[in-house]
């Protein structure tokens, strides 16, 4: 029987992890998840502090050069204070960590952070929250532009090593990419549940490619079980339900979306996972 899709190459162990720290409550969440991963794989953490300078042009009324300079300098002074706080926090980590302060104006933030993430193996961001829309927008920009896997983590205490991992599989390029990026975690997991869930394809259409990729993972020593999730109108909800039933500590999925006016609009499954997942979600585009 002919194999479908490309073979999944075993991902190398992550050695560089990027997080963006901004002084919010999410900083501790990100470090709490990044530190054990870095420890497990012998990786280093790069903590980005992005100081977005105020833009005063186009405000509808004249602003003197002196006032502009005062406002910008105040923003820089606040950034330096936060920098010192973040450096002290990084010094307490048990793994190597570097702090990097970047100053820019808002339109450049996504491009610059994406560039930083390309020089790493993994970008860790918080699961989307209504109280942090700017952070969500930046993380989505990195997800769709950096070419690296992104790990979105909830505001909960990490559960340790990812012993049970749920993989959402639909025989797409995005699913293949996510699996390749997740291989360091999959090969160390005790159980991997590979799920197919689609509103548009039958179980028979999903069974063959799922069996093929499960066979491929098994050749790497992955203990994998295939489950076809039927009867769900929402594939994202189906994956979250199965993750709960399986006791999964990590969800792996391709990231889907489309570009609209230079911004990415998340696909339905990706939106559900990044807004509602109670456990970390590793996604790749």
UniProtKB/TrEMBL annotation:
Residues 162-284 form the UspA domain. Gene3D superfamilies: 3.40.50.12370. SUPFAM superfamilies: Adenine nucleotide alpha hydrolases-like. Pfam families: Usp. Belongs to the universal stress protein A family. This is Universal stress protein. It comes from Arsenicitalea aurantiaca.
